[in-house]
Specification:
28% of the residues lie in helices and 37% in strands. By secondary structure, the protein is α+β, with helices and mostly antiparallel strands.
């Protein structure tokens, strides 16, 4: 038993040592610290030439903040028409197709219904009765003047004539709304078919009928959209609303196609904040084309009102982590010193630079090109040492 006990003890001791060894090997090495940006660098003439060092001064520039926003393309309500029939009927013929371009007044479909004839016959019947009632009214009026008949009969005849005329006006307006010509009906030309015509120029986006289908006045025949006033509807976050103003310029591109950039300007700003804390901004497009279709998604950059700041080319500012520096050249030497700065607005290739207090920015000789080459040269020199 003693030998067996010693054997187990030796086994567990070896196991513990192995686990301890593995644990020690798996420990992670501490992350290497980034090389600090050098405070002073001296370059040779060859290094100066290879780096393409260009020294200049800081400039006062008017830079704007860019606000990013998403949105969609849309058209005004008056440019999107849902076409319905004024009266029920069977679809006799149609050439409608989605994407078809139509002009105002073009026929969209032909409807057929015997009830159209009934309405025209009623108008024609009244039309033929009006001359008779007019004569009767004139006769009763003459008799009343001569005291042969009472004025009551004349008044009753006048009321009947006026009632028929008013009914006739209503029928005429209804027939014209349906597309029938009253002058043709008065000549005895009656039609059992009604032509539905387009009220705007545009493109057919939806078709809701087919040959032989029976449509009611509330049924959708088709939808037509006019793209002449297509615009951008942007959703701007509440925190950015104070920086948005009517007239501001913006650029946008369609989602999935960032090669083509369109230009627009802010036209209207909604006064209601949505549940997602965004505000709707309406923008008019300067260079709209046929590639723009309602409900396309877009990404926009709104340029806010600019302000005058000290600015440098972005390439002149060396960044490492949270630090930003510019390199200054000592007059008459190849020695460069690093000056820590803060950055602000960035627009295009220019960035706002905020210098330390008591600094006269306009008097500094700043490296405008080759700043990162100076940093790389200094780091290589430090490693060699």
């Amino acid at each position: 038993m003693n030998k067996l006990h010693k054997l187990y003890s030796s086994f567990f001791l070896v196991l513990i040592l192995l686990l301890a060894s593995c644990s020690g090997n798996s420990s992670k090495e501490p992350p290497k610290e980034e090389t600090a940006i050098p405070n002073e660098v001296v370059l040779t003439e060859v290094q100066m030439k290879n780096a393409g060092i260009r020294v200049g001064t800081v400039e006062k520039r008017e830079l704007s903040t860019i606000i990013r926003a998403n949105g969609i393309l849309d058209v005004p309500p008056q440019n999107l028409v849902s076409v319905s029939a004024m009266a029920s009927g069977y679809v006799k013929s149609t050439d409608l197709l989605q994407g078809l371009h139509v002009h105002k007044g073009d026929p969209l479909c032909v409807l057929e219904n015997p009830d159209y004839l009934t309405l025209q016959q009623e108008y024609l019947s009244n039309y033929s009765r009006i001359p008779f009632l007019q004569k009767e009214f004139n006769r009763q009026s003459e008799l009343a003047k001569e005291n042969v008949a009472s004025s009551k009969a004349a008044e009753q005849s006048e009321a009947e004539l006026n009632s028929l005329k008013n009914t006739q006006k209503g029928l005429a307006a209804r027939l014209e709304m349906l597309g029938f010509q009253v002058k043709d009906i008065e000549k005895g030309i009656l039609r059992s078919q009604m032509v539905v015509r387009s009220s705007i120029d545009g493109y057919v986006t939806k078709v809701g009928i087919n040959l032989g289908s029976f449509v009611q006045p509330n049924d959708l025949l088709c939808e037509i959209v006019n793209l002449d006033h297509i615009h951008a509807e942007l959703m701007v976050y509440e925190k950015d609303l104070a920086s948005i103003a009517v007239g501001q310029r913006l650029e946008f591109s369609l989602t999935g196609n960032h090669e083509k950039v369109y230009h627009a300007s802010v036209y209207l700003i909604n006064r209601k904040i949505n549940q997602d804390r965004t505000v709707q901004v309406h923008a008019h497009i300067d260079d709209a084309d046929q590639r723009l279709i309602p409900n396309m998604q877009l990404t926009a950059s709104i340029r806010t009102k600019g302000r005058s700041v000290w600015a440098l080319p972005t390439a002149a500012i060396v960044t490492q982590g949270k630090s930003s520096v510019v390199f200054l050249q000592k007059p008459g030497t190849r020695t460069f010193t690093a000056l820590q700065v803060q950055t602000g607005i960035q627009e295009g290739e220019w960035t706002e630079v905020i210098f330390p207090e008591a600094t006269r920015p306009e008097s500094l000789a700043i490296v405008l090109e080759g700043a990162y080459d100076i940093k790389a040269t200094a780091e290589n020199t430090s490693e060699e040492e």
